[in-house]
Amino acid sequence: MSKQILNGGDLLVKCLLNEGITKMFGIIGGELTRIYDAVERFGREEGIDTVMVRHEQAGGHMADAWARTTGEIGVCLGTAGPGVTHLVPAVAAAQADSIPLLVIGAQIARMFDDTGILQGGLNQMELMKPITKLQISVEEPYEIPFAVQRCIKAALSGRPSPVFLELRETALVRDVTEKDIKKIIPPEKYRSFYRPSGNPEMIRAAVDILKKAARPIIISGGGTIASEASNELKKLSRTYQVPALTTVKGLGAISIDEKTYAGSYPLSSTFRKAASEADVVLSLGCRWDYTTFYGTDPIWNQDQKIIQIDIDPKEIGKNRPTEVAIVGDIKTVINQLLVSMENNLPKNMISIWSQWNDYLQKASEIDRNIIEKILKSDKFPMKPERMIVEILEFIPPDTLIAVDGGDLALFTYGLISNFHRNPRSTFCSIGMGHLGVGSSFAIAAKLAKPDKPVVCINGDGSFMFNVQELETAVRLKLPIIICVGNNSAWGMLKTYQKNNMKKRYCDVDLPNIDYSQIAKSFGCYGENLEKPEDIKLALQRAFDSGLPSVLNIAIAFESPPAGKFLGTYKSKKGLFGAGY
User: Fold this and answer.
1) pTM
2) Which of 117, 393, 454, 578 could bridge to 112 as Cys pair (CB 3.0-4.6 Å)?
3) What's the rounded Cα separation, in Å, for the pair 484 and 552?
4) What is the DSSP string of 45-64?
5) Residues 120 and 239 in one domain
6) In whole angstroms, what is the distance from residue 450 CA to residue 464 CA?
7) Coil, helix or strand for 534?
């Protein structure tokens, strides 16, 4: 097979190899064939491969999870028309969670515009505009290297985000020249790898506020994970005994192993005490959105001072006014703070803050007692919490966990902060509240980290969104375990109707299906479970099978505390959305 760069498809693959990209998720389509042919002729040998999925939406979710797991940019493809439209939900979910994706969409040649050609006539650039940071369309091969460079630079600069690269068929099929190939340059020659630092005056202002703080806390979000700043966060929190919370997207940035960890669940005893009694909040890459209840009472003390650090200026002061605003990379700014605090912070503050931390840690005993109570529950069908705790107790600490679903996700968020989590080990679509990510996230996580166990916690509703990807897992021989909490309902909407519509249930009940039987038909290992004491044994059998596995676990329909709170709590923003 010829390894010579012949056409635009070859040139694109060479550009992606130059960026260190190793995986492209998608389904082949007519206009994309030159790209796939390049992968077949020389791409795999040089380090890049395609991952065939069974729906482009799932391919987009896999690219998303690849980025979350590795810290690299994820790449997904869709052919002209339906292939691109199928990507939209996944791209929107990634955009809401600030995940860097290179979304490649084919397009018909311009000569066929307005002719009624198959899969043509769609303005894909306008379609992608609201959900991507940058959109570029190219018609000739010579445009491809610069277009790839612009896209990747935009996706990774500032707040990470998806970008859209549209490739007209002419750009892929026409011949390239030696001059075109020379336009492929090393990444360090066109984009900065330097992390932007914070304004020194604002660093000093932040430390001046901390000098007067009696009860400071840290809340760390997805920006800390994106910045690979977990070690710096731990050093700051540990050295100065500042209690540290995280958001759901920040899970794992600091974990239960640290004596200053104060949780990730806003309705837990420790989190609520910390948020309501703190006098200073150091916000690190944290969005003040619905996941933090917008920073409003009764969760948050309205007299406390906020020191907000974020890479995105648009996030500064959103929903919650700040005392000091620092725009910069979280890792770099924490290091700046550490230097300034070492030089300017009175040492007796550590003793004061240590007592404050000890006070909060005592509250965590209440949360541990709740777990003990859950484990003693023998209710039938089992409580959703019992299912989740059984799973979290059994899996190894380094397990990668994908969380998908409505109420079941809320139950999981309420318990997972009581167990060890590493950075880049817990994946969910939190910004969009998007369903259908679970199996796709799990597949990509296992591809990215084949030596790590991967478990997905799914609701029965969300599981069916992309159930076809079980075939992908079987074909790729990926031993992921999907635990389906089956309450035969769209749980979150049923909770909302229960709380707000006097139990007038409409379109929220689902048939009782044994999803393990569906899994077996794909070639997976499957079990149907009803007793909580069987879960750990079934998990072990699933691990031992070496196959993709689905455990169908019957659970009761119950409303999580967060579900009740989200469904009824009023703020200046109005009612929180009900979601699925």
Assistant:
1) 0.94
2) 117
3) 5
4) HHT-EEEE-SSHHHHHHHHH
5) no
6) 25
7) helix
Q: Is residue 580 over pLDDT 50?
A: no
Provide the domain limits for residue 224: 200-364
Residue the block writes with tokens 């130059």: 18
Summarised one tens digit per residue, pLDDT across range 334-374 is 999 999 999 999 989 999 999 999 999 988 888 778 878 88
Q: Considering its fold, how many domains does the chain have in total?
A: 3
User: Which amino acid makes up residue 528?
Assistant: N
For residue 540, give the CATH number of its domain: 3.40.50.970
Specify the pairing of strand 570-571 against strand 574-575: antiparallel
| Helices 438-448, 56-70: crossing angle, 10 deg rounding | 50
Helical segments of 39-131, H only: 44-46, 56-70, 82-96, 124-128
Which residues make beta-bridge pairs with 217?
Answer: 281
**Which distant-in-sequence residues (6+ apart) come within 8 Å of 307 by Cβ?**
206, 209, 210, 280, 281, 282, 283, 322, 323, 324, 326
Give 42's DSSP letter.
Answer: I
* Residue 129 structure tokens: 């505009």
Instruction: For residues 497 and 538, state if they share a domain.
Output: yes
**407 and 263: one domain?**
no
Place of tokens 């569906």: 518
- Check whether residue 264 and residue 168 sit in a common domain: no
Between CA 383 and CA 218 the distance in angstroms is 33
Report d(CA 140, CA 7) in Å as an integer.
10
| Rounded Cα–Cα distance for residues 365 and 374 (Å) | 14
Residue where a domain terminates, one of 364, 394, 421: 364
